[in-house]
Amino acid sequence: MLNGGAVPLIAPDLLAEILVTASDFALILSALDQIVSVFVNPQHRSFGQLRHWEGLHVNDVLAVDSVPKLTKRLEALRETGVSQSVELSHAEQSIWGFPVRYSLHRLGPDNTVLLLGRDLRPIAEMQQKLVAAQLALERDYEAQREIDTRYRVLMEATRDAIVLVSMATGRIVDLNGAAALVLGAARGELMGAAIAQEFEGRRRGEFLESMANLAVIDSAPPVELTARRSGSRVVVVPTVFRAAGEQLLLCRLETPATRAPFQDELGDALGRLFHDGVDAIVFTDPDGLIRCANDSFLNLTSEASAAVVRGKSLADYLARGEVDLRVLLDNARRTGQMRLYATKLNTAYDGQVAVDISATWLKERPNPCMALVIRDAGRADSLRRPGMAGVDEGAGSVMELVGSSTLKDIVAETTEVVEKMCIETAVELTRNNRVAAAEMLGLSRQSLYVKLRKYGLVNKEEE
């Protein structure tokens, strides 16, 4: 048993094991500060073997800034005999280094000193991670502040009355000053209020459901309501979106004053024509991608909804694909419009419908587009009664040949006239693109060139 705090004598091997277990590694310094022994904890393999330190002066394995700190602590230890602690940085031949916290203990009257060290690299790495995380949080905070500022400026600068509503609670999350003016109350008073209560005769569940349904239906007319506080008639245009896992409803409020410039008599009539007209109407971007199409176009192509065709290329529905589309786009851009282009329209179920297409290039607007009116030619032909159509000019010319030429000569001559007219028309429509013209006529390129030479439609420099 140990009495009075006495420590029994410990075998050298056991002492070394205790030292390396109680610390990451230990150094024993002579009175001249030379390293006598090095003990490394076998559980910390990152130190490697430090036996080559033995016999070196301790300053030789320290960083420059750590030398005076250790010297000062050694002097205090040898003068007072009181254990000291110090944080030092080791440098291994200026190649690699590591920080260590040492506790210094005097071993005997010969000024031999024991240094028990704890590796500070895990703590330093953790501190660096914390600093990096703090810097990242500060950057995210600044970015969030910048986005919030932009959002606030945009909300207040826009003339549109905007209200954001939570779909979960039906309450107003945010709104701008224009919306507060339309609803007839201060912005602070409206924040958190139930949106349905701001309109006469509306319940929360019914209002949110109707707004959500209205937001996903492209051709649905806007809803006109009466603001309870201001008594103003308001048209609500909703948009549903999701942010951070929460579903929100953006309501744009339009009053008769704000809608007047856009809802004049002509605009309303054109809108009704688009939705209710018997002819298919399609608007495309400059590349031929469909922006919107009416129900008549959906009926022609047997598509289920406008959402299916939006974003698709018009070439997908044209019988000759890109050839038809290029002809329409190029001629409409060059002359502003193209009348009665005959082709066929592909349906959703591998069918085809003969159609006549009129194209108009709308360039006097921020986003130029092409407007197409598509008429079912097959239905128009079926409505014509026999005998109602007059004798056209071509038929009259053919009839004049009867009596002066044989039937065989008349057929041969008229066939060549029609063939030449078709080739000239195809070359003109494709703007002299021989490949597209051949595909449009169903001919090979070689056959087209032969017929062009036959009818003298090839320039001398092209021969």
Characteristics of this structure?
463 residues; alpha+beta; Beta-Lactamase; 16 helices; elongated; Tscrpt_reg_PpsR-CrtJ; sequence-specific DNA binding
Strand order of the largest sheet: 2-1-5-4-3
Report the radius of gyration as a whole number of Å. Answer: 45 Å
> Could you say which structural class the secondary elements and strand pairing correspond to?
alpha+beta
Number of helix segments? 16
* Backbone shape: elongated
What profile does the largest beta sheet have? Answer: 5 strands, antiparallel
CATH class identity of the largest domain: Alpha Beta
The CATH superfamily of the largest domain is PAS domain
Task: Briefly say what this structure is.
Helix content is 40%, strand content 24%. The chain contains 16 helices and 15 strands. The termini are far apart.
